[in-house]
Amino acid sequence: MTAYRVGYFVGSLATASLNRLLSRALVRLAPSGLEMNEIPFKDLPLFSPDYEADYPPVARALKDAIAAADAVLFITPEYNRSIPGGLKNAIDWASRPYGTNSFSRKPSAVIGTSPGKLGTAIAQQHLRSLLGYCNSPQMNAPEAYIQFTPGLITDDGQVTVPSTAQFLQTFMNEFHAFIQRVYTVLPRGSS
After folding, report:
1. How confident is the model at residue 11 (pLDDT cuts 50, 70, 90)?
2. What angle do CA 118, 26, 41 make, to 5 degrees?
3. Handedness of CA 123, 126, 132, 133 (dihedral sign)
4. By the 8 A CB rule, do 115 and 150 touch?
5. Cα gap 114→19, rounded to integer Å
6. For residues 74 and 9, is the Cβ–Cβ distance under 8 A?
7. pTM for this predicted structure
8. DSSP assignment string, 154-174
9. Are residues 76 and 87 in contact, defined by beta-carbon separation less than 8 angstroms?
10. pLDDT tens readout for residues 98-123
């Protein structure tokens, strides 16, 4: 299979985020055909159309990082039955100005973890709606709503429950195959 660069967003800005732990596990479990690179966004100012005439350097860096990626993975918690405000802000920056939507035709996938039994399901549905509007082809299966329990993932990204490790590895393998399918149907550079 072809190798792809995957830019990933960790939706939480918290240093000790459960979703940051999940991101470390996903990087460890990714097949060799996926090169994983985090796309930071914590330093973005709140988006305003007033910036569109002259994007600040941090926003240009965000758009450049997405442009350098072949696909995008979102690893997000759920805040108030939605995605965190910082992640929504990053999506707003990346999708503007009009005609320069960084997510258009870029394959994406969504995953998240939380201590709750719903495991970020509602936030993921909200995010899928945003990505649909941004014209990003989305991997719809397998869905991945991970209920986090203490010790599930170590600080260095080891998954301690074998069935969860297998599921996450399958998720990453499926994402690799999905990216390949998208670029078979929508070759890069086609419109």
Report:
1. very high
2. 85
3. negative
4. no
5. 8
6. yes
7. 0.96
8. -TTS-BSSHHHHHHHHHHHHH
9. yes
10. 999 999 999 999 999 999 888 899 99
